[in-house]
Write a structure and sequence with these properties.
five-stranded antiparallel sheet; 1 helix; single chain; 429 residues; mainly beta; four-stranded antiparallel sheet
């Protein structure tokens, strides 16, 4: 740019902030410009950098999100023209930890303690050395959750002929528990409680009961543990004066059938000394086993075979007072097809996805033999939601199921064939 002036100075305006400029000048000795000097040497100067004014205001709209067992995300609103933000946090009642020079409106805290309550605050700073800062904001609090673990140390107390109290260790951070219990030979009962105990009443005298429990870590039932191990207890027997009638065992049943084992059970007889079990694979000789409990586990059985068994009560140690034989029971051990209970690798062929789900999910599995099967979906209380029968099937089975119209919670998907059974859990959020 060339400017002609009649004085020995020139004022420049509308220059750019923080820019470098060069200039030089020569003299005009006549108005016609016929007499001029040479150019002067070149000079250089830089305009100043514009720095907006800054007022270190206190940040607002504090929020905490994505709270995990060991981390959390902290967020706040912006303050104009500041250099950075500082955050401080602590376990409630302890000293502060300072996080400085944050240039974004959020930060992730890592390495937090499980099940702990935290305070945090934020301030703005107008200078990089934090010499000009705002006051600390109001205090925001959050609590890290506990992992949803399996209840431990299951115990029974206060056992009478009709009552018992079931207890287990408290799981930190749990919302409640689901208890599954029954008298052997009866249907399972499911109870939901908010304490780590359950009182049972109206039980039968001298009866064997089984139970287990899992933790529920939120009210929606989307965060749950696996089942605990199974516990067994016996209600006390009401002793009636006079001789004991040695009666045949009742309610015979088989549980946990696999391709090579089975658990035989029956009602305990009040006053019995023991029981004798008679069993065999069809086509083989009879086996006799004397036990002093009302169950017998058979192992080393052959797969896909039919077996018979029965039992009588022994009411004294001399085995002179015994009952008649019970009725004969029949069961089949499982075959080796892909869908079979008791085989973890094979039962993994049953795929349920996505899990957890908002309601819509898929079921798929593969069978390598021609089978008929029944597909059932039941809720946590044993109510049947869906049932589908397939008389003949081989290959890959897929089905889409929609439970969005049903309550949130835990449902069981069951596949049963003539000689196999699988059950898997689906969580509807």
């Amino acid at each position: 740019v060339f400017d002609t002036v009649n004085t020995n100075s020139l004022s420049l305006t509308t220059l750019n902030s923080g820019a470098t400029h060069k200039w030089r000048v020569y003299s005009l000795c006549t108005s016609s410009g016929s007499s001029v000097s040479s150019w002067s040497s070149m000079n250089t100067f830089s305009t100043l950098v514009f720095v907006p004014s800054c007022t270190p205001s206190v940040p607002s709209s504090l929020s905490t999100s994505n709270i995990q067992t060991d981390e959390a995300t902290l967020s706040w609103s912006s303050v104009l023209n500041i250099d950075h933000y500082d955050v401080r946090y602590r376990v409630q009642g302890s000293s502060w930890t300072l996080v400085q020079n944050l240039t974004t409106l959020s930060t992730i805290l890592n390495g937090l303690s499980v099940g702990s309550s935290y305070d945090w605050e934020v301030r703005s700073a107008c200078s990089s050395d934090s010499s000009s800062v705002s006051s600390w904001s109001s205090t925001e609090t959050f609590t890290t959750p506990y992992p949803c673990t399996i209840p431990q140390n299951l115990t029974e107390s206060g056992i009478t002929s009709t009552t018992a109290t079931l207890s287990w260790d408290l799981v930190p951070g749990s919302w409640g528990y689901v208890v599954m219990h029954r008298q052997v030979g009866s249907a399972w009962v499911f109870d939901t409680v908010n304490t780590n105990s359950l009182s049972l009443t109206t039980l039968n005298s001298g009866a064997t009961h089984k139970w287990r429990v899992y933790s529920v870590c939120d009210a929606s039932g989307s965060s749950v543990s696996s089942w605990s191990s199974m516990n067994t207890f016996l209600t006390t027997t009401i002793v009636t004066p006079g001789p004991i009638a040695c009666t045949s065992p009742q309610n015979l049943e088989e549980e946990n059938i696999t391709s090579s084992s089975v658990e035989l059970e029956w009602d305990a007889l009040a006053g019995s000394w023991g029981y004798k079990v008679m069993w065999r694979q069809l086509g083989s000789g009879w086996n006799y086993t004397l036990v002093n409990t009302n169950e017998l586990i058979l192992s080393s059985l052959n797969p896909n075979k039919t077996h018979k068994w029965r039992v009588y009560s022994v009411c004294d140690s001399l085995q002179s007072n015994v009952s008649a034989w019970s009725s004969m029971q029949i069961f089949n051990t499982l075959s080796s097809i892909r869908i079979a209970s008791g085989d973890t690798e094979q039962s993994n062929s049953l795929n349920i996805y996505p899990n957890p789900t908002k309601g819509m999910f898929n079921i798929s599995f593969i069978t390598e033999e021609m089978v008929g099967f029944k597909l059932m979906i039941v809720d946590a209380y044993g109510k049947t939601i869906l049932i589908e029968n397939n008389d003949i099937f081989i290959g890959e089975f897929t089905k889409q199921v929609d439970l969005s119209e049903y309550p949130k919670g835990i449902y069981m998907v069951q596949i049963r064939t003539n000689n196999s059974f699988i059950t898997k859990r689906i969580v509807v959020q």
